[in-house]
Each structure stands twice: as structure tokens, then as C-alpha cells.
């Protein structure tokens, strides 16, 4: 049933443009989460690069002499030697990646659920549809985000080159995009996309299926309604499920 044009203008933006609103909300949530967790990702990457650089420089003796400092000491070392804000060095391509990936997969999943597969008469979304929809949404989201994922990895590899005393290849995110595009063309931005979408399909099969199942259970068995609070609680429970 269509809404009259005058009434449509009075609707909140989230109801007038539900897909665009879902994309923006998912992108904003992903940005906040990335900003909060990026220092941990950076520290992990630094520790890995430190080990690889030590092995390349010292060979087997690196196991005894490599200067591993642990997570906390590595974080303190970055702050003392480079500055507090360096804990977020390289966060820009990671944010780009999560906005495209999270927004793309959620919009795709919502479209598959509401339009392609459809719900049953009792508004229940069968498990098998959630599984297929989650996998397809992961494939679409990762395929769209592959260029940003590639740039993120390439920018992280710059840290290894710096530790090895090699010249840096990129001056920034946009320079990395331009260089990859000039060297490999459009197809170069999708290098490695096949294993990436395979992983995303499996991850989202679990994530989105659990999210939808938990949300449906909460709406049916608790006083909660199908609103942003329920969506947030469902997402948190999915995160807890992944952590365990």
C-alpha cells in the first residue's frame, strides 16, 4: 500500500528512506567500533611485523634476541616514542572499509529478507533463509569493500617496510588508491577478492543468522519492540556469541 505524497513528506527520514538510513546507521556503528578497537589491531600488527622483521634480519637466532615487548609494553612504547595519536595511525582506510562493508551487507540482508525471500505469515524469518541471506549479504558487502580492504592491508604493510629500513611506497590513503589503480587498473583493486568473499560468507552466515534469530526471539518473548534498542541488544549478543 503506497503512502500519499503529502503524508510521505511528514514521515521521519528513517521511514522515508529505510535502505539509506540502514546503510548510514550501520556505517556509523562500524566507525565507532573501529575507532574503539583500532589501537588493539595496530598493536597486534606491530607485534607481528616486529617478529617478521627480526626473523628476516637475524634468522633463527631471532627467537632468542627479538625484542618482543608484549601488548601493554608495545602500546606504551608507541605512545612514548611516536605519540598517543599514533595508536590510530592508518585508521582512515579501516573506517572506509567498515562503512562500505557493514552498510553494504546490512542493506543487502534487509533487501533479501523483505523483498526476495520474504517472511512467513507470522512474520517469522526461517532459519534456512537467514543462513542463505547472511552468506549472500557477506559476499556482496565484502565484494564492495574489497578495494578499501586491499588499501588497508597495503598501508599496514608499510610498517613492516619501515622496520626493515625500506622506503615507504604510499604517502597516504588516496595515494595508495591512485597507485594501485595506476599499476593494476580497476581489476587491481579487487585483487584477492575470492578468498575474502568466501571468508565473509561464512562469517556473516553466523553473524546475521544469530542477529536475526536473537532479535525475533526478543520481540516475541519479551516486552521489547522491533526498534533500535532491540537491534542494538541483538548486535551486542551476537558480539558476545563471537567472543565465546
Walk me through this protein's architecture:
This protein has 10 helices and no strands. It has helices at residues 5-10, 13-16, 18-58, 62-65, 70-82, 91-117, 127-163, 173-188, 193-221, 228-243. It is globular, with a radius of gyration of 22 Å. The model has no long low-confidence stretch (mean pLDDT 79).
Major sheet, described briefly?
A: none
Task: Write down how many β-strands occur, each being a DSSP E stretch of 2 or more residues.
Answer: 0
User: Which structural class best describes the helix and strand composition?
Assistant: mainly alpha
Number of helices: 10
Helix percent band: over 70%
Overall, the morphology is globular
Averaged pLDDT: 79
SSE order, as H and E? HHHHHHHHHH
Rg computed from alpha carbons, rounded to a whole number of angstroms: 22 Å
- The fraction of residues assigned to DSSP E strands is under 5%
Give a short overview.
The chain has ten helices and no strands.
List keywords for this structure.
single chain; transmembrane helix; 244 residues; Mitochondrial uncoupling protein 4 isoform 3; MCP_dom_sf; Mito_Metabolite_Transporter; 10 helices; mainly alpha; membrane
Outline the fold blueprint.
Layout: H1 5-10, H2 13-16, H3 18-58, H4 62-65, H5 70-82, H6 91-117, H7 127-163, H8 173-188, H9 193-221, H10 228-243
